[in-house]
Amino acid sequence: MSLPRTPSFRLDGKKALVVGASSGIGFAAAVALAEAGAAVSLAARPSKKLEEAVEAVSSAGFIADGLALDITDLDSISKTVASSGPFDVLVNSAGLAIHGPAIDTKVDDFDAVVAINVRGAYFLLQAVARGLIEVGRTGSLVTISSQMAHVGGIDRAVYSGTKHAIEGFIKSMAIEWGGLGIRVNTICPTFVRTPLTDQTFSNPERVKWITEKIKLGRIANVEDIMAAVIYLASDASAMVTGTAMRVDGGWTAE
User: Fold this and answer.
1) Per-residue confidence at 254, pLDDT binned at 50, 70, 90?
2) Which residues are catalytic?
């Protein structure tokens, strides 16, 4: 009897783009992809943090470069992806949260969150998919969404709404591009310890509320997201598209 073979989690020979890669989940995703053998382009707005992130990955012996990209600038997205691609793998970790009571939401804050979380995310996926289609290549496109794409939350009406929107359009893209071998999925983390969430975790009452909601009883680390990135980017998930992978410790199980 012949034995089935486990699909490879390796990404040797693949070219990956990680947006929002200068810190947090995006940086961790870039490291994970590089460790799996991909040549990784770390993209974010120009900053010393982006330069340091690229240097850290390169110094570890991996293939990495940096790309200046503003996800709110659709012309920048189109030109950057066209000139540097095509990319076999995309991980979009760019995002913005401006929390507050729904009754107090300001139009400018609403527009700022939508510009990154919805508008930018949509056209980034389109640009990377277009590059693959033009050369007849398959690929895996991953967007970092949130557990808030599946539930609501106090002070999170705008943020949750944008994440729900992402889940809607990735399903439609998965249907349209599936026949071309382009897979489109999301990863939906719970609260993750990153420099951007330090303020949240400095509040003991908020930490207590969070850990009570997470059935595994702890806040996530970026390492918890890295394996999910590799799974969805690689052939290990060759039959997975239009799906939300919840890395939420059971938050949304109820």
Assistant:
1) confident
2) 159
Contact status, residue 30 vs residue 11, Cβ threshold 8 Å: no
Inside any domain, residue 214 = no
With contact defined as beta carbons under 8 Å apart, do 98 and 115 qualify?
A: no
- Distance set, CA 47 to CA 77, 124, 159 (Å): 17, 20, 25
Who contacts 216 (Cβ-Cβ below 8 Å, separation ≥6)? Answer: 249, 250
User: Distance between CA atoms of 254 and 243, rounded to whole angstroms?
Assistant: 19
**Residue 40's CATH number:** 3.40.50.720
What's the pLDDT score for residue 116? 98
**Would you say residue 69 lies in a domain?**
yes
Kind and range of the H or E run holding 144: strand 139-144
Integer angstrom CA distances of residue 71 from 38, 175, 187:
22, 24, 19
- The three-class DSSP label of residue 153 is coil
Q: How confident is the model at residue 206 (pLDDT cuts 50, 70, 90)?
A: confident
> Structurally, how many domains does the chain consist of?
1
What lies within 8 Å, CB to CB, of 49 at 6+ separation is: 22, 23
